[in-house]
C-alpha cells in the first residue's frame, strides 16, 4: 500500500522513510483440510512395520559372531563390491519357524541402513500389525519410507496423491505402479534417478493375513524386477509355506530369485550357545550381579543348546523367561529339568516341553481364565470389529476382568506374551480405580472417542504373542495336550463364556419408552 494514501495538504521535513511493506506470495501444495499428499500416504501406511519403529525395540537381532555366513551372503547379493557381476533382483530366505529368519532380517536392515543401501523394510509380524488389511498398507508403507529418503520422489508422490486420493484404495498392482514404479521411472528419465541399487527387506511374508495376498506381492515385485522398472533389490524372509514355495519356484520367478535355505541344523549349535551366553551376561549386567563361579554352568548351557535343536526361538524364549523371573536361577533349573528329557523326538520337542512348563506353572484357579485369553488371542481376527487388534480394553471386557486382574493374568504368560503401551491414547490411570472394568470405568470416554475398531483395538495398550510358534503349540493337541485351545472342553467353555457375556451386555441395554423387554 502507498504511504499516506489520500493525504491532503501535508508537509514533512528532514525525515527518512523506510518501506516495510511485505509482498507475500504463498504457493500452497496442501489440501483444503491442511493435509499434503504425503500426510495422506502416511495415514495409509503402517509405521510399526519399519525396522526402526518403536514396536521393534525388542525385535530379535543376531549377536556379534553369529549367523555370519548368512549375513555375508545377503550383503554380497544386496550390496556387491564395485565391479562385481549384477546379482539377481530377488532374494528369498526360507526356513521353518524359530530358526532366526527375523533376527537375520533385522540385523541386515540395520547394517544396510548404516551403509546407505537400505531402501525400505516391512516386517509382517503379529506384534506390530496396525490394520486388519495389512496387504493394503504394504506398498504405501514402502512408498512412504522411500519418500523420506528422496526429496524429488517425495514431491512426485505428493502431487500424484493430491490429484487422486483413491490411489491408496486401488489394487496392490495399481498401488505399486502408481506409487513406486512410475515415479522412479519418471525420475530416471529426467536425470534425477537415485543412481544406485537399494535393498528392500520384507520379513515374515507368511504372516500377512491372506495367502492370496502373499503370493500376489511376490508376483507384483517379481514382474517389476524382471522388467527392470525400479532400482531395487527385494529380499524376502518367510516360512516355506506351500503357496509361497509354489510362487517362488514358478519358472518366470525362479529365474530372477536367489534362494537360500535356513535349515534346522546342529551347525547352528555354536551360534545358539554364543547367543545364550551373551543373553545370560546381559541378564546379570542389568541386575548388577557379578556371579562367580560362572552362571549358568557349562552343563546348563549345553543342555539348553541340545534342547533348542537348532531353534533360536527356543533360546530367545528361555532368556526372556529367566530375565523376567524373580529368581532367575530357580527358573533356569526348572527349564533345564523340563526340557532335558522331552517326551517326543520331534523338531519342536524342546520348545514344546518349555511351553508346557509355562502353562503348568499357572495356578489352577487362574488357568481357566488364561486359557480363555489364549483362545481369544488365537481367534481375535474373527471377533466382530476387532480386526487384528488385540486391545487390553477389549480382552479385559470380554473376560469380565478389572484392569489389574487382567494384567496379572497376562503376567503369567510374560515369556510368550508381548504387551505394548500406546501413549497416544487416553491414560486410564487418570480414572484412579484399577479394580473396575475398563467398560464401566470410562463409559463416556468409550462412547465419545472409541467409535472405531482402530481406536478400541489400542485402548489400554495391546497384547500379542511374541512368536507364532506359541500359537502353533496351542492349536495342536498333540503338542499342547490339556492346554490345547481347540479341544472339545475348551470349545464348550468358550461358547458358554461368550453366551454369558452376551446376556450380561443385553441386560444393560434400555430403550426409552419401550417398557419391559
Automatic annotation (TrEMBL):
Q: Does the keyword Membrane apply?
A: no
Task: Name the Pfam families for this protein.
Answer: NPHP3_N
Q: Which residues form the Nephrocystin 3-like N-terminal domain?
A: 87-239
**SUPFAM superfamilies attached to this UniProt entry:** P-loop containing nucleoside triphosphate hydrolases
Q: Which domain of life is it from?
A: Eukaryota
- Is Zinc one of the keywords UniProt gives this record? no
Keyword terms: Repeat
InterPro entries xrefs: NPHP3-like_N (IPR056884), P-loop_NTPase (IPR027417)
Record protein name field: Nephrocystin 3-like N-terminal domain-containing protein
Origin organism is Macrolepiota fuliginosa MF-IS2
Amino acid at each position: 500500500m502507498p504511504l499516506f494514501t489520500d493525504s491532503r495538504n501535508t508537509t514533512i521535513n528532514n525525515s527518512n522513510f523506510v518501506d516495510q511493506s511485505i509482498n507475500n506470495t504463498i504457493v500452497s501444495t496442501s489440501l483444503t483440510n491442511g493435509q499434503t499428499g504425503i500426510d495422506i500416504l502416511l495415514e495409509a501406511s503402517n509405521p510399526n512395520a519399519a525396522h526402526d519403529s518403536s514396536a521393534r525395540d525388542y525385535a530379535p537381532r543376531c549377536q556379534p559372531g553369529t549367523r555370519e555366513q548368512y549375513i555375508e551372503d545377503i550383503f554380497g547379493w544386496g550390496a556387491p563390491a564395485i565391479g562385481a557381476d549384477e546379482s539377481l533382483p530377488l532374494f528369498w530366505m526360507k526356513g521353518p519357524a524359530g530358526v532366526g529368519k527375523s533376527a537375520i532380517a533385522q540385523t541386515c536392515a540395520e547394517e544396510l541402513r548404516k551403509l546407505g543401501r537400505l531402501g525400505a523394510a516391512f516386517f509382517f509380524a503379529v506384534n506390530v500389525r496396525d490394520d486388519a488389511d495389512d496387504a493394503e498398507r504394504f506398498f504405501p508403507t514402502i512408498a512412504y519410507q522411500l519418500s523420506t529418503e528422496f526429496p524429488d520422489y517425495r514431491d512426485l508422490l505428493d502431487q500424484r496423491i493430491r490429484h487422486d486420493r483413491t490411489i491408496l484404495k486401488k489394487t496392490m498392482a495399481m498401488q505399486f505402479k502408481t506409487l513406486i514404479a512410475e515415479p522412479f521411472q519418471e525420475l530416471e528419465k529426467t536425470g534425477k534417478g537415485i543412481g544406485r541399487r537399494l535393498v528392500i527387506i520384507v520379513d515374515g511374508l507368511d504372516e500377512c493375513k491372506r495367502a492370496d495376498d502373499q503370493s500376489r506381492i511376490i508376483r507384483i515385485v517379481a514382474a517389476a524386477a524382471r522388467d527392470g522398472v525400479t532400482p531395487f533389490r527385494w529380499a524376502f524372509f518367510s516360512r516355506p509355506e506351500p503357496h509361497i514355495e509354489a510362487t517362488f519356484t514358478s519358472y518366470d520367478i525362479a529365474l530372477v530369485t536367489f534362494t537360500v535355505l535356513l535349515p534346522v541344523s546342529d551347525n547352528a549349535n555354536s551360534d545358539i550357545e554364543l547367543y545364550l551366553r551373551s543373553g545370560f551376561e546381559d541378564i546379570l549386567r542389568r541386575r548388577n550381579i557379578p556371579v562367580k563361579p560362572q552362571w549358568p554352568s557349562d552343563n546348563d548351557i549345553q543342555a539348553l543348546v541340545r534342547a533348542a535343536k537348532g531353534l533360536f526361538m527356543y533360546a530367545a524364549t528361555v532368556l526372556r523367561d529367566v530375565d523376567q523371573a524373580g529368581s532367575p536361577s530357580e527358573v533356569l533349573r526348572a527349564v533345564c529339568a523340563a526340557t532335558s528329557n522331552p517326551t517326543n523326538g520331534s523338531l519342536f520337542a524342546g520348545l514344546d516341553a518349555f511351553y508346557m512348563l509355562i502353562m503348568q506353572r499357572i495356578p489352577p484357579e487362574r488357568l481357566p481364565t488364561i486359557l480363555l485369553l489364549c483362545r481369544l488371542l488365537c481367534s481375535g481376527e474373527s471377533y466382530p470389529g476387532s480386526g487384528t487388534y488385540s486391545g487390553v480394553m477389549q480382552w479385559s471386557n470380554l473376560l469380565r476382568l478389572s484392569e489389574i486382574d487382567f494384567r496379572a493374568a497376562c503376567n503369567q504368560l510374560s515369556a510368550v506374551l508381548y504387551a505394548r503401551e500406546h501413549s497416544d491414547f487416553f491414560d486410564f490411570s487418570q480414572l484412579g480405580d484399577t479394580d473396575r472394568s475398563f467398560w464401566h470405568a470410562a463409559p463416556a470416554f468409550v462412547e465419545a472417542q472409541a467409535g472405531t475398531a482402530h481406536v478400541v483395538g489400542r485402548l489400554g495398550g495391546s497384547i500379542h504373542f511374541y512368536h507364532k510358534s506359541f500359537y502353533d503349540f496351542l492349536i495342536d493337541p498333540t503338542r499342547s495336550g490339556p492346554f490345547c485351545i481347540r479341544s472339545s472342553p475348551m470349545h464348550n467353555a468358550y461358547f458358554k463364556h461368550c453366551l454369558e457375556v452376551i446376556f450380561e451386555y443385553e441386560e444393560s441395554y434400555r430403550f426409552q419408552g419401550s417398557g419391559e423387554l
